[in-house]
Design a protein that fits this description.
Blueprint lengths: L4 H18 L3 H7 L4 H10 L18 H11 L6 H12 L2 H6 L2 H13 L4 E4 L15 E5 L2 E12 L6 E7 L9 E7 L5 E3 L13 E12 L3 E2 L5 H37 L1 E2 L2 E2 L4 H29 L5 H25 L10 H8 L10 H12 L7
Parallel strand pairs: 1-4
Antiparallel strand pairs: 2-3, 3-7, 4-5, 5-8, 6-7, 9-10
The structure holds flavin-adenine dinucleotide.
Flavin-adenine dinucleotide binds next to strand 1, strand 3 and helix 12.
Length: 384
């Protein structure tokens, strides 16, 4: 992938925003288990960072996906995973299908405010009874006159307490599971929606994750994104961007964790020399840095294919899998070299250890990624 002056400008602008407006407040937001999404998104929108790859007609910059990857990578400099995740939901998880397949009227009403940072978006795919197996969702949107009437529940929804609208995946007919779904934009103040209290988690503390119920929720059919019955296919496409984003977002967070650990280990003395001078320590950190650069290379390769218009289902799955694996391995190894300090709550390695654990579960678990890769390799056993 070739980076231009414009890529560097995105990096610089976002990095300054993170250093000046996010990192000084991260500890306060983590302790409060909430961050002011509207305020942060408003500032990002004013900087033009919420619509890099979105159409110019709706306030975006119309750039290719490499810019999203640069943004996700730079967000890795935030001192927690929760804020990047919330931003990623807004830019690369809840809005790609709307931007690509939504009608102009729908994009004016919902995409433009999301790009401007005036509206917070969330994505509703997972349910209490179906996460990995997206085809098995139960939430239904039944036609009634010119409306859909929605009943069901969505679980684990990021930005749930603050969202203005949801990109909802629901069954709109009884047909085969891959052909009976639609994506629908649902304003969160519609009567019949109830948002449960925040789910307590082991990490991503500043992120509001919730369970949302739909009881006879009525929205006009014109709020459907694209064609009825194409929702599963649109969501699979949307997942490609989510997975590339997740891989890119891991890179700098991992590299920083290794760097901070090296700095600490250099200062800390044990057995007459610095902890870093013990070969097992500096060799391990060198090995992990090599792994992180391999992830960077894989992510850039996948992004290059995507920008060239190829199907990157397999590449994006590999990159996401590798990111998930490294987000378990790197903070675990680093935490060890901080000793007791690594076992404290606010330590950077311990925060990445908790926040990063999500990557192997959400947006497609490691096993789901392995299934996709094995299928593309032609080695996945046929279902009986
Ligand atoms: C903090 C957080 C934020 C989230 N944000 C959102 C959001 O904004 N919107 C949204 O829609 N969802 C969100 N999710 C949900 C997330 O995408 C799901 O948790 C994930 O897809 C896994 O689904 P599940 O939890 O139902 O696990 P299950 O589907 O019950 O799977 C449990 C485990 O079974 C194993 N497994 C599953 N399938 C296979 C297989 N084929 N082969 C072998 N093993 C398998 C895996 O180890 C998996 O972890 C979020 C989750 C969390 C925890």
């Amino acid at each position: 992938m070739q980076f231009t002056h414009e890529h560097e400008q995105v990096r610089r602008t976002l990095r300054r925003f993170i250093d000046e407006e996010i990192n000084p407040r991260v500890d306060e937001w983590e302790a409060a288990e909430m961050f002011p999404a509207r305020e942060v998104f408003g500032r990002l929108g004013a900087l033009g960072l919420l619509g890099l790859t979105k159409p110019e007609a709706f306030g975006g910059a119309g750039l290719d996906y490499s810019y999203s990857v640069v943004m996700a990578e730079t967000l890795g400099h935030a001192n927690c995973g929760a804020i990047p995740m919330a931003i990623g939901v807004q830019t690369d998880m809840a809005t790609p299908a709307l931007a690509r397949f939504g009608s102009d009227a729908l994009r004016r009403e919902f995409l433009a405010p999301a790009i401007a940072g005036e509206a917070v978006a969330c994505i509703g795919v997972s349910e209490p009874g179906a996460g990995s197996d997206v085809a098995a969702i139960r939430t239904a949107a039944r036609r009634d006159g010119g409306d859909y009437v929605i009943d069901g529940s969505k679980m684990w929804i990021t930005n749930s307490l603050q969202a203005d609208w949801m990109c909802l995946l629901a069954n709109t007919s009884d047909g085969p599971a891959h052909r009976n779904k639609s994506l629908i934009v649902v304003p969160m103040d519609t009567p019949g929606i109830s948002v449960g209290s925040k789910i307590r988690k082991i990490g991503m503390m500043a992120s509001d994750t919730g369970l949302i119920h739909f009881d006879g929720v009525r929205v006009p059919q014109r709020y459907r994104i694209g064609e009825e019955g194409e929702g599963f296919a649109y969501q699979m496409l949307q997942f490609q961007e989510e997975r590339l984003w997740a891989a890119a977002n891991a890179i700098e967070a991992l590299a920083n964790c290794i760097g901070q650990t090296a700095e600490y280990a250099r200062e800390r003395q044990a057995f007459g020399r610095s902890v870093l001078d013990h070969q097992v320590v500096h060799f391990r950190l060198a090995e992990l840095k090599t792994e992180v650069e391999a992830l960077r290379a894989l992510t850039y390769l996948a992004t290059g294919h995507y920008v060239a218009g190829r199907d990157v289902t397999e590449w994006a799955s590999m990159a996401k899998l590798k990111a998930g694996r490294l987000l378990r391995e790197v903070p675990d190894a680093c935490l060890q070299f901080w000793g007791g300090m690594g076992y404290t709550w606010d330590n950077p390695a311990s925060r990445l250890y908790r926040d990063g654990r999500l990557a192997s579960i959400a947006g497609g678990a490691d096993e789901v990624m392995l299934g996709i890769i094995a299928k593309r390799m032609g080695i996945l056993p046929a279902r009986r």
